[in-house]
Amino acid sequence: MTTTAGRAPAPQAPEPEILAAFEGAKGFMPLDEGLALYAAAAEATALGLPLLEVGTYCGRSTILLAAAARAAGVSALTVDHHRGSEEQQPGWDYHDPGTVDPVVGLMDTLPTFRRTLHAAGLEDHVVALVGKSPQVARVWGGALGLVFIDGGHTDEHANADYEGWAPHVARGGLLLIHDVFPVKHDEWTGQAPYRVYLRALESGAFTEVSACASLRVLRRTGPGI
Ligand SMILES: C[S@@+](CC[C@H](N)C(=O)[O-])C[C@H]1O[C@@H](n2cnc3c(N)ncnc32)[C@H](O)[C@@H]1O
User: Fold this and answer.
1) What is the pLDDT of residues 27-66, one digit of tens each?
2) Residues 178, 81 contacting (CB under 8 angstroms)
3) pLDDT for the residue 144
4) Which of 1, 61, 186, 225 lies most in the core, judged by the most C-beta atoms within 10 Å?
5) Does 12 have pLDDT greater than 70?
């Protein structure tokens, strides 16, 4: 089988060394969701379009998107300002002191992300977009085969990610939303992603394909968003 761009899509499961790199990388995604993310990314590569992630952090989930992209000859794009989300700041539950730049005194996950990708041998397959998601979305003009939303978890940020990137998902492409909790989980990974997931379904533009733990996979089946 070949993609609409004349290439073979990625295989449905990541190679063992990719899985090992994923499991060794700093980040938040558990293995079951990682496998579901990879499978969705592999399927989406059939469109021959780039795959885009919002929320790079240190590159854990990026590894999987990049591996699927590499196998199909497309690019993975990943957006982050690399200053961390609210719940990752000093004093909060998800803070990692190792992510603070001692010179600037702020979080900077970009160096760790670059080391992660380098170690996994995937640098050539990823375009890192460093900036605030809505600002990057405003200058992005192309169609995407997959958008994976895993950025800020406040309503403001989750809605801005949806509004900025969902319109770029090509017909037949996939929209993935992470940390979807129908029941309140905790203060920060609360329910903003869940509300965005409902919003996507209510738009009529997306149809649910599958769910794995807190990861939801939707397909673009309609025009309006
Ligand atoms: C939950 S982490 C991403 C985890 C990553 N996908 C993984 O699997 O390890 C969320 C990331 O989103 C980034 N972020 C939050 N709000 C953002 C915004 N408005 N624009 C760009 N990046 C943002 C943070 O800097 C943080 O690195």
Assistant:
1) 989 999 999 999 999 999 999 999 999 999 999 999 999 9
2) no
3) 98
4) 61
5) yes
> Other C-beta atoms within 10 Å of 221: how many?
12
Question: Amino acid identity, residue 74?
Answer: V
Query: Among residues 178, 165, 169, 157, which one has the least CA distance to residue 84?
Result: 157
CA angle 163, 167, 172 (to 5 degrees): 135
Q: Reduced to 3 states, what is the DSSP secondary structure of residue 24?
A: helix
Between the CA of 93 and the centroid of ligand 1 the distance, in Å, is 15
Q: pLDDT tens digit string along 93-115?
A: 889 999 999 999 999 999 999 99
* Residues designated catalytic: 153
57 lines ligand 1 (CB under 6 A): yes
Q: Are 215 and 181 in contact (CB under 8 A)?
A: no
Q: Assess contact for 68 and 56: CB atoms under 8 A.
A: no
Q: What does the alpha-carbon distance between residue 103 and residue 112 come to, in Å, rounded to a whole number?
A: 16
What was the pLDDT predicted at 189?
A: 64
**Residue 61 CA, closest ligand 1 atom number:** 8
